Amino acid sequence: MRIRRGAAAVTGDAPTNMPLAVGLGRRSARKIREPEDLLQRERSRHEARSARPFEACALTQEAPLLPFPRFRLLPTLALPASLALAACGSSDASPAAEPCAPGFVTQVVSVSYGAQAGFGQASMPQVVFGPPRGAALANEGSLDVVSLGLNGSIVVGFDQDGIADDTGPDFIVFENAFFVGGDPSQVFAEPGTVGVSDDGVQWTSWPCDATTPPYAGCAGTHPVWSNPDNGISPFDAERAGGEAFDLADIGVAHARFVRIQASSMVPGAAGTSGFDLDAVAVLHPACR
User: Fold this and answer.
1) Are 201 and 278 in a shared domain?
2) Is residue 202 part of a domain?
3) What angle do CA 51, 168, 56 make, to 5 degrees?
4) Beta-bridge partner residues of 107
5) Distance separating alpha carbons of residues 42 and 39, to the nearest angstrom
6) Which domain holds residue 148?
7) By the 8 A CB rule, do 85 and 65 touch?
8) For each successive 10 residues of the chain (288 residues), what is the average pLDDT?
9) Is residue 111 part of a domain?
């Protein structure tokens, strides 16, 4: 259809029951729809096209003014962010971020090396990023680690909004313990105490007996089997190796940081003493 008023023209294939708004004068006897009706129409259209529910979007500000499509002379209305073309869930928007998924350390917040540390420091922080690189041998530990030294410590963080408590283990800590001579009763271990925090100030830790085998509650006491080259998932708490931790065990629902504190045991050679961190895998990330 084509309707003229002076030099202005409105083109489009509007439905016959939709009035043309703005300046059509007396030649249009139809009543303009109320803004609420137009908003409802837009809501229905966007809900049908959206791949994600609006409540999953975190936008809180009002979206930019947008004209309704195909009626260029209609007054522009301010749409709520959930209805704007640029909002999350619209097929006209930029691709949405990937849903938050299990992941690994992406930042080293702080590190304090103790006596007899040194190994792996030149590769920091990248050496503790990404998946573990377990040696996959019961009598050999990974060298893709950083040694914290005696009583050393490290605090790490993640791209996701931390770790959320869910069913079963929530994260796994990977060190490079191994069975001496392949004997499971003879563990070469450099245990460490694991704690978590939501603000980096108040910490809650798992009880760790770092003096007596089998070092109950500590990290660094089991070989690491997962490696990118062998197909064992680092998110498989049953097969990956290392030590899995459940936030529910210490009454914590959410944590943004993980801290590992090395013990004062001296089983390793000079430069390699203390807890040797390979990686931390988050099984239950907290989505923003």
Assistant:
1) yes
2) yes
3) 20
4) 157
5) 5
6) 103-282
7) no
8) 40 41 37 43 45 33 35 36 32 44 95 94 97 83 94 93 96 94 86 97 97 92 94 96 98 98 76 88 90
9) yes
Tokens of 234: 């680092």
Are residues 227 and 191 part of one domain?
A: yes
Evaluated on CA atoms 200, 202, 206, 209, the torsion sign reads: positive
Rounded Cα gap, residues 15 and 33, in angstroms = 13
Residues 235 and 121 in one domain: yes
Instruction: Count other C-beta atoms under 10 Å from residue 246's C-beta.
Output: 18
pTM confidence score: 0.66
168: left (phi over 0), alpha (psi -120 to 50) or beta: left
How far is Cα 9 from Cα 140, in angstroms, rounded to an integer? 79
Question: Count of domains in the chain?
Answer: 2
CA distance 160 to 74: 43
| Residues paired with residue 262 on neighbouring β-strands, in sequence order | 192
